[in-house]
Known about the structure:
Blueprint: E1 5-7, E2 13-15, H1 22-32, H2 35-48, H3 52-58, H4 60-67, H5 80-107, H6 109-128, H7 133-161, H8 167-192, H9 199-205, H10 208-217, H11 225-230, H12 234-245, H13 252-266, H14 272-276, H15 282-296, H16 300-305, H17 307-314, H18 318-346, H19 348-373, H20 384-403, H21 405-416, H22 422-451, H23 454-473, H24 486-491, H25 496-510
Antiparallel strand pairs: 1-2
Helix pairs in contact: 1-7, 1-8, 2-7, 2-8, 3-4, 5-6, 5-7, 5-22, 6-7, 6-9, 6-10, 7-8, 7-22, 8-9, 8-18, 8-21, 15-21, 15-22, 17-18, 18-19, 18-20, 19-20, 19-23, 20-21, 21-22
Amino acid sequence: MAGGGFVAADGSARDYGGGVTFSVVVTCLMAASCGLIYGYDNGVTGGVTQMESFLSKFFPEVLSGKKNAKSDVYCKYDNQWLTAFTSSLFIAGTLSSLVASRVTRRVGRQVILLIGGILFLAGSIINTCAINIAMLIIGRMLLGFGVGFTLQAAPVYVSETAPAKWRGAFTSSYNAFAVFGMLCATIANYFTNHIPGWGWRISVGLAAIPATIIVLGAFFVSDTPSSLVVRGYHDRARVALQRIRGPDADIDSEFKDIVRAVDEARQNDEGAFQRLFSKPYRHYLVVGVAIPVFFEFTGMIGIAIFSPVLFRTVGFNSQKAILGSVITSMTNLVATIFSSFVVDRTGRRFLFIIGGLGMMLCEVAISWIMAAHLGKHEGMTMPRNYATCVLVLICLCAFSFGVSWAPLRLVVPSEIYPVEVRSAGQAMSISIAFCLAFVELQVFIALLCAMKYGVFLFYAGWLLIMTISVALFLPETKGVPLEVMHSVWARHWYWRRFVEDANQEVEANSL
């Protein structure tokens, strides 16, 4: 890791030196821009799946059923093939992130970003030219492979490049790009929705633009110093570290810590995944699994992607539903930018807790309004003023999500793992997130149909559980360099017992 500091014996952090240089900004932002493809795809999918031009070509039964859904307004879009169009990306992302973990150690993070961009570009072309559902699913799978590769590499790339003092802000910029990509997608949907017959192809095809940006940008940045040292390129690693820290920065201490961390990792170089499940790494495993699991149970992936469908459900027409999605994405973007400025000041735990409570209250309120008013007026939609209240509450929920779980579910997993299991740990966290996202998106509309307003109470209950868990068990990682992240576990009231046991086991094995 090239992270900007170390922890002294007394546990205090001291900066290595070297500030935020132009090179570090450009390098981090280029890697973080991989969020564009993830965000654009999420944003464009939810809008396209309620466009009549798209439904009439690929899912005419959904279109006809929607027009005759007076008996149950919650079930307008309940079609497994339609949700498979959305969710198939995430099952492909699960597989590719696991593959990317092993490939990264051989070719480096820069090449992984390039491969991901190329795969996403190919998928966007196939989806634009699709003439049947099979082409749609194949294109979505390629998009998923691209997202899986880039999401596995980009957050760690940024984390290993940014100074420790500003690592949270730089790493959360991935989410800022993702939200910006989602906003661009919803705006594209708003204008292409007017075009009969083939407007959806424009929305889907515009995904090639961020993919092209990533492919071209990957040629203009070097790999991270840690990744270069892992592959034996010490001279190139020193040059890369000097460039991102600035020509006048003294990088000797930081470079020695990077080499030492990598050398320690090489003592157990094989079997990173097996090691991750061993007793000395139990605390990393628990938190690394809990964060992506809790993230999916916020319910915000389903709400964000299917927001146009939700707005159609509560009574907005197609154009206003997409406009509501645009407003929600803008709110999320503002929250994400705000989070990037405060995450290294307030810390991770505070934002997790505040955001979790905000989402919980909003989802309870949404459930109450839908229970009281949706489907109660001649079996159709709710009154316009209550539908507007749902829009406002979803925006407030998106703001709470944008300042907390949205950026931090990438920040924390990218920084908690030691270098010997960092790629494996990041791959595991992303694979769990993608796998659960696949399940959630596949069943979200069915849950809405079956549980009705109760689906929001289901997610609110999980938000209460995860907020309490974060308050009790998540150590604060603000400003701590990656090379010595173990110190925060050693000081934590609960996890320190596992660190002590692991240290005793290592000492016993060395005798």
